[in-house]
Amino acid sequence: MSLQNLGLTPEQESVYRYLLRTPRADPAVAETELGIRVPVVLDELRALGLVDELLLPLPPAAAVDVLVRRKMERASRELARMEAAFDVVRDLAEEARRGRAVELVERLPDGLEVNRRISAMLDRSETMHAKPMPLSSTYSEEYARRYRRQLADGLVSRTIVGTAALDRPEQLAYARQMNSLGDLHRVSAEQYLPLLIIDRRIAFVRVAPGEPSVEAPTLLIRQPGIVAVLVELFDGLWSRAADLDGLELTAAEARVLRALAEHSKDEAAARALNMSLRKYRSHVADLMSRLGASSRFQAALRAKERGWL
């Protein structure tokens, strides 16, 4: 295969192959033999990382690896430009539908319209979500199923939740479930606005954070400079937040773990805790999910490894 398929010019490939055959070659001799301006091409090969200052060429396997990576980076940038072009097409289609220009900052009247807009964005590859308030259940089951499919298909998703969002056991269980599915969760005690960023290009920011999510108006922001600032804000919050799996056990979880280790049957453990069998088994399932355990025996072992037992 010609190295030109990986991005080299014919002159660059000729000089590189010449150096492989003739290490530490004299550039003047090489120029005479090849009939090209070797010093200029050598500078280009050095810039590409294929030749060092002693005119020693990178070994073929390493050189091909460098060229393949550069080609992949160029392809990635080109795909990003294509995605931006498709964004323009979608904006133009929306403009034609509405009969007016699409705004870079748009006010959406309520959470239902926000959910409709988010649901229409099928081809996302990354989401960043900051939820300071208790976790919302306004999303439909259909949306939840589709979101789980997107996670399974490679959607990169990060979610920051406030400590108040995890006060109720069902909310903590939901966060842990989503974390196990690939929507990585962290917990922050800092103050911040509800925020959703999609593909680092579109942001949804709640105008009145104290209002219920279904009623609150929200800004849809496409202005690149504003979105870039919001991405930086989210990344800072994420770096300071605590891992969800690193949270200490609640008192109830600690009691369930001890009962799990001490009793071989669920009925006996539930009675010892003065807890319904259904609630006990729900706690056990949550703990197994949190510990990444496939069996109760494995859950007990991993709890001991963490110092929880």
Automatic annotation (TrEMBL):
| Boundaries of every HTH luxR-type domain copy | 246-303
SMART domains registered for this protein in UniProt: HTH_LUXR
Q: Gene3D superfamilies given for it?
A: Winged helix-like DNA-binding domain superfamily/Winged helix DNA-binding domain
Q: What is this protein called?
A: HTH luxR-type domain-containing protein
